[in-house]
Amino acid sequence: MKKKTDVRQGTLALMVLKTLDVLGPLHGYGLAKRIEQISADHLTLNTGTLYPLLLRLEQEGAIASERGPSENNRSARFYRLTAVGRKQLQAETRDWERTAALIARFFDVKAEDLQ
Amino acid sequence: MRCLRRFLIRLAASATGRRDDERLREELEDHIAFQTAENVRAGMSAAEARRQAVLDVGPVEAIKEDFRDEKRLPSLEHFLQDVRIALRRMKQAPGFTAAAVATLALGLGLNSAVLGLAYAEFLKPLPVDDPSRLVNVGRLFTGDARRGFPISYPEYIYYRDHARSFAHLAAHYSTSPMSIITPGGPFNVMGSVVTADYFGLLRLQPAMGRFFLPEEDAVPGRNPVVVLSYDLWRTRFGADGGILGTSVRINGTAFTVVGIAPEGFHGVLMGLEPNGVWIPSAMFAVGYRYCNGLARGCNVIGLLGRLNDGVSIQDAQAEMNVLTGQLQSMFPATDNRGWGIELRPARGIRIDEQQRDAPIVRLLAGAAALVLIIASANVAGLMLARGLRRRKEIAIRLALGAVRGRVIRLLLVESVLLAVVGGGAGFLVSVWGTGVLRGYFGQGGVASTLDLSLDLRVVLAGIAVAALTGVVTGISPALQSTRPDTMGAMKEESAGAGTRRSRLREGLLVLQVALSVLLLGSSGLLVRSFFLLHRGPGFDPDAIALVRLRPSLVGYTDARAWAFQREVIQRLEALPGIAAASPAVVAPLPRWGRPVRAVRLAADSGNPSDEFRTATTFVGPRYFKTLGTGLIVGREFDDHDTEDGPRVAIVNEALARRLWPKGDVVGSHVTIGPERYEIVGLVKDLQWLSAFEAPEPIAYLNYWQQDRSNSWSQDSRTHIRVSGAAAAAMVPEIRRVITEIDPDVPVSEVQVLGRQLDVQFAAVRGAGTMFVVFGGLALVLSAIGLYAALAFAIGQRTREIAVRMALGASRLDVGRLVFRRGSGIFAIGAVTGLAACLFAGPLLAHLLYGVSPRDPVALLTGPLVLGLVAVLAIWLPARRAMRLDPVAALRAE
C-alpha cells in the first residue's frame, strides 16, 4: 500500500468547494471519491471529518443541499455551491495562492540573494 | 463579541441539535450503502461488502459525538440532563421534596422580605431620571457623628453660587404641614417649600402646566404659585383639567396653580408622608414660621444636588469642605464650628431615619439569616439521610464509571433545584413578610412613600441567595454520599452509629438547636420588652386623641392664636362623646415630649439644698382628667386660674418626695425662676421620658399662665379624652369642628395617642413580631429535625436494636438508649445557644425597655418550650424503638 497523507487542517473545505465548483452538484460519497481521485489517491478521506464539514458548510451558507436520485437510482443528498460559497472559494483561493507564493520564495532563497 | 456570537450559535445548535444528529446519521447510512455497492462490484460477498464499508466509516456514534462537542455546549447539555434527572427524583420522593421545599421557602422568603426592607430603606434610588448622580447635602456634627441636619437658606445660596461640582443644587423643606382649601373642604397635606431648580434637577416633566420660573422664586412673598401633586389633583380636585391659573388657599394665603407634578412623584423624602403641594422658597413663610426660613441661622432646609458629569462625590465633598470653611470664618456667630457638611448619595429614606433603623434592620437580617441557616441545616440533614438510602444507586453510578465530580454535580443540581423551587415558593412568604414589615416601618398607617414593592435587584439577590443555599446545603451530603466505598455500599450495609456520616448529622442538629435557642431567647427579650412597653404610660392611650394645631403658620397674632385655642377646646368639650379636652405643649409620650424646661426651683424652707434643677411643662385645666390619671390630692387647674391671677403649680410624687418628705404638699409654695407658685395638686408619677427610667421630678405649670408670645406654645397639642367609643372613631368629627372655626389653620398629627405610641415603637414592635415568627419557625424546624434524625437513626439501627433485645436488653434499656442520644444532642445545643444569647443580648439592648439583656425569664421561656417540644420529638422515635419486635426485625434482614 502506498503512503497516504491526511488532509491538512482547513484545506479540506477548500477542496470541497473547488470540487463542487468544477464538477457541479455531487452527493457525499461521490465527493469523497472525487477528492481522492483528484489527489491521485495520495489522500484518504475520513468520513468522520467529511460529513460534519459538509453540514457545517451548509449551516454557514457556503453550500446547499437537496435530496435527489443518484446514478444507480438510490436516493442521496446532493450538494451544490451557493453564491456565498463561490465568493468564499475565490477569497480562499487568493489567500492560498498568496501563502503558497510566499512560502515558495522562502524555498527559493539563496544566501547570495540577501547580500 | 466574537466569543458571545459563537456562544449564541452554539446555544442555537444545542436547541436544534437533534436535526443535525439525524442528518449525520442519514449521510453516514448513505455513505455505507454506496461503499457496500462499490465493494460488491469489486467482487465481495454482500455481507462482507457491508462489513468492510462499516469498518471504513468507523464509529458512527463517536463521529456524531465529536460533531456535537464541536458545535454545541456539552456542559450545558450535561447540566440539562442533570436537571432532568433531578426533577425526576423530586417527583419520585414527593414527601421529601415537599418538606425540603417548604423549609427552604420559609427561610428564603423571610430573608427576601428583610432584604426588600433593607433595599427600600438604604439603597433605593429616587424614582427620577438618572438618580445615581443625585446627592443629599446635610450638616454633620463632627462630635457625635449625627448627620443629615438641615442648614440655612443663605448658606445654600453661598454653596449654590460657588460650588462647581453640581449641575444643579436645590434647597427644600419637605415636611411643612399645609391646610389647603379644596372643593370638598379644607384638607391637610404635607407640603414642600422648594427652590425653582428643584424640578429641573430631578428632570421631571409636569403632567400639566409648568414648574416654577426662576423669577417666581426671586422676591420673598411676591409670587404665590403652587404645583400640586398628581394624586392630590386627582382625588381632591376631581382631576379638573381647567385648574391651571385658578386660585387655591393654602395656610390662609391664596396661591395660583401653575402645574401638576407627574404621576407617582411624591417628593424627595422617601419613607415619610408624601408631598402633595410644592411652593417656591420665596413663599417660605407660608410653610414655616418658627424662624424666618430665608434668614441666616434658621436651619430648616435640606439640599439636593445633581453632580456634574465626571465629578465624583469625593471631588464634590472636597469642594464643599472648602466652601464650608469659608462660611465658618465669614459668619463665626451663626455658622458655628463643630459641624461639617456631608454629601451622601440620595438613596433610601432620610438619613437620620436610616441611622435610626439601621441597627434594627441589621438585627432582622441577622435573625433571618439564622433562620435560613437552621432551614439549610435541616434540609442538609434530610439529604444526608436520603443520601444513605441512595448509597446503592450512587455506588452503581460510580461502579459504571461515572466520574465522582459528575455525580457530585448531579447531587448539587438536585439541591440547588430544591433551593430554587423553595425560593420561588418563598416568594409567597416574602409577600406576607413584606406586608408585616410595611405595617411597622411605613410610618405606621400614615400614608408613606416607603416603597417596598418588588424590585428586580431584590429578586435577583433572592435567587442568588437561593442558589447559594442550594450549594451550601448540598455540598456536604454530596461529598459524603459519593465517598468511594463502592463495595460496601452495594452490599447495602447499614451504617452503624459513630460513623463520620452520623457525626456530621449530629453536628447539624446541635447547630440547629443552638441557633433556635439563640433566636428564641432573643425574641423572649423583645416580647417581654414589648409587653412592658404597653403597660408603660399608666393610662389608656387608646381613649385619647391628640391634635396639633398650628395657628402660627397662618400668621395669627399671639392673642388671636390663644383665642383660637380656647375656642377649639370649648367646642370640643361641648361635643357629645368627648369627656374632656386640654392643651399641653408636649404629648405624654415616652422619649418624644421632653418636658420643656429645666429651671431652678426652691421651696420655702429656706434650706439651700432644696434648690435644684427640675423639669417643668405646661398643661391646661382638666389635663389629668383628660389623661384619666386623676390627682392624689388637691385640685386641677381650672378656669379660675386666670392669665394674670396668682401662679399655680401641680407637682408629681417624685418632686414631692424630694421637697416635702413629710407631706403637706398642697398649699406649699415654690419659687421657679422669678415667680412664686402655690402648689394646688399632687399627681402620680407619669412615665415621661421612657417607660422605665426612674420617674423624674416634674412641676406642671398652668398652660394659660405661660409667656404667650412663644410661637412653640401657640402651636400646642390638644389632648382629647373620648368617653365610651374608641378615640379613633371621633377623629373625623374632631377635625370637622376645628376646620369650622378656621379652615386655614393646619391641623397636623391628628391621631389617637395609642396609635402614636405604636408608631414611636414601631421598630420594637416590628422587630418583636418578626423575632417571634423567626423564633417559632426555628422551634418547629429544629423539633422536626430532631425527630427526623432520630427516627432515621433508629431505622438504620433496627438490626442492632433487635440484636440487643434478643440478647436480653429490656424495652426500657432501648428507650433509654435512644433518649440518651437525643437529649445529649439537645443539651449540647441548648447550652451553646444560651451562651450565645448572653453574648447577643447586648446587641439588642437598644431595643429593650425595662428588661435586662440577661433577664432569665425572658431568655429561658422560649428555650424551655423548645425543650418540651424536643422531649416529644425524642419520645416518638424512642417509643417506636421500644415497640420493636426483635424476631420480626431480624427475620426481615
CA-atom Rg of chain A in angstroms: 17 Å
Radius of gyration of chain B over alpha carbons? 37 Å
The shape of chain B is globular
User: Biggest chain pair contact, residues each?
Assistant: A-B, 18 and 22 residues
- Helix/strand order of chain A, N-terminal first: HEHHEEH
Helical residue percent band of chain A: 55-70%
Approximately what portion of the residues of chain A adopt beta-strand conformation?
Answer: 5-15%
| Class based on secondary structure composition and strand pairing of chain B | alpha+beta
Number of helical elements of chain B: 27
Query: Span from first to last CA of chain A?
Result: 47 Å
Morphology of chain A: elongated
Strand order of the largest sheet of chain A: 1-3-2
Main β sheet profile of chain B: 11 strands, mixed
| Parts with pLDDT < 50 across at least 5 consecutive residues of chain B | 494-498, 591-598
Structural class of chain A: alpha+beta
Secondary structure: number of strands of chain A: 3
* Largest sheet report of chain A: 3 strands, antiparallel
**Roughly what is the average pLDDT of chain B, rounded to an integer?**
81
Number of strands of chain B: 22
